[in-house]
Design goal:
about 75% helix, mainly alpha, about 0% strand
Length: about 210
C-alpha cells in the first residue's frame, strides 16, 4: 500500500521545485511564476510548520532575483555588440515599442523606483529591464533596485495564495483560486489594451460616429 508523503518530504520536494520554476520563469518570461508562488503559499498555509510560508517567501524572492540578474547579464552582453544577442532579442519581443518608450521615460524621471514597481505591474518587468539595459545601467546598480522589487513581488503573490488558502479547507481548492486570481491579474493589462485599441476603431465606422449605410 502506497504511503502518503509526509510534510517534511513535501517540503523537501516543494522548495527546490519552487526555486527552479521561479528562476526559469525569470529567464523565460512565459512561465507563470506568480501562480507558482501563490500555489506554493496555499500548500504552505495548510501545513503545520509556522515557518513554511517564510521559507516559500525567501526561496521565491531569491530565485526571482537570481533569474533577473542572469537575464540582465545575458542581455547586457548583447548591448553595443554588432549583432546583439538572442537574449536581448527575446527581451525586445516582450517589450512593445510603446511600452518600452513609456518605461524609458519613467526610468529617466524616477530611477530605481520604477524598477522596484516594475515587478508588481503585470508585464512590466521586461520593458523596464530593457530600458535599464539601453540606459547602460551597470549590473550592480540594477541588482540594488531588483532586491526590493523581488521581495515585494514574492510578498504580493504569497498574499494572494494565503487569501486563497484561507477561504477553503482543501489545499487544491485554494490552489485553484490562487491560479485563477494570478491569471486574471496577469491578463488584465493585455485585455485592457485590446479594448482600448478596439474602441477608436469602432468610433470611426461612419460620419459623426454613425455607421455607414
Amino acid at each position: 500500500m502506497a504511503q502518503i508523503p509526509t510534510e517534511s518530504t513535501q517540503q523537501a520536494v516543494g522548495y527546490p521545485s519552487v526555486f527552479l520554476l521561479v528562476m526559469l520563469g525569470a529567464l523565460v518570461p512565459v512561465v507563470p511564476t506568480g501562480a507558482v508562488v501563490s500555489s506554493a503559499a496555499v500548500v504552505a498555509f495548510h501545513q503545520t510548520s509556522p515557518l513554511s510560508l517564510l521559507y516559500i517567501f525567501l526561496v521565491a524572492s531569491f530565485a526571482a532575483f537570481l533569474g533577473d540578474l542572469a537575464l540582465y547579464w545575458l542581455g547586457k552582453r548583447g548591448v553595443g555588440s554588432k549583432n546583439g544577442s538572442r537574449w536581448l532579442a527575446k527581451l525586445r519581443q516582450h517589450a512593445p515599442p510603446d511600452r518600452l518608450e513609456q518605461a524609458q521615460d519613467k526610468l529617466r524621471e524616477n530611477g530605481v523606483t520604477v524598477l522596484v514597481l516594475s515587478r508588481l505591474v503585470p508585464a512590466g518587468r521586461i520593458p523596464v529591464m530593457l530600458a535599464c539595459l539601453l540606459a547602460a545601467w551597470p549590473l550592480r546598480r540594477f541588482a540594488r533596485g531588483d532586491v526590493p522589487a523581488c521581495l515585494a513581488w514574492a510578498a504580493t503573490y504569497q498574499l494572494i495564495g494565503i487569501l486563497g488558502g484561507s477561504l477553503f479547507a482543501e489545499p487544491w481548492q485554494g490552489v485553484a483560486v490562487a491560479v485563477v486570481l494570478t491569471v486574471v491579474i496577469s491578463g488584465a493589462p493585455a485585455l485592457w489594451r485590446k479594448l482600448r485599441g478596439a474602441a477608436p476603431a469602432s468610433g470611426h465606422e461612419g460620419p459623426e460616429g454613425g455607421s455607414q449605410a
